[in-house]
Specification:
Elements: H1 3-16, E1 35-42, E2 45-49, E3 52-56, E4 59-66, H2 85-88, E5 102-106, E6 110-112, E7 115-117, E8 120-127, E9 130-131, E10 134-135, E11 138-142, E12 169-174, E13 176-195, E14 198-216
Antiparallel strand pairs: 1-4, 2-3, 4-5, 5-8, 6-7, 6-14, 8-11, 9-10, 11-12, 13-14
Amino acid sequence: MSRSWKVCLVAAVGFALSLPALPLLAQGDRPASPRGQASTQVGGEWVEQDGRTRYQGGKWIDIDYGRPVLRGRTDIFGSGESYGKDVTAGAPVWRAGANQTTRLKTETALTFGGKTLEPGEYSLFVDLAQGESGPAWTLIVSSQPHQESFSRDEEVATWGSYRYDPKYDVARVPMEVAATQHALDQFTIVFLDVTDAGGKIAMGWGNTLATAPFGLAGGE
């Protein structure tokens, strides 16, 4: 394998495996935490048409989120009583990204922890907790309104995870948290192991990777 191909491969792996966010200032015309999107398409089928194989009838699931970068920081989630305090930055839960609230958009009904989500838009948060045997995270799916642009006068809609209110929770799902051998430089959300029955949402940053299962309503 040539050196240039090795560089491209390392870059691709790094992009596919990154996670959380502190709000950072923009640098010039480029935001310090670029927006990103994780997407998958489910429920369709591959058909032969005009001599080509096409995927038809699928429904999209998208997650839009900010992608902070480590920039040399280590132990991003901390430990002990201060666990998770840096990334939440005073908010009650973590925004699972940077800047605007992380948003889940689905064209098909999903299930999280036994709760059914109708097609539509929702917010995602993570409750960062430290259990006796290690991190004990919970993925939160919420119907709380959110802000596209920050306003100090807003009293209900979230910016990131500020003003988060648990009364809007639609589902809460325990996450499986594991340590990674390599430090993931940029926060990344990806879909894993997707089938017609469901899959997993994975979030990774630093040496931490967390996953939560979801199902497709009516999936086998």
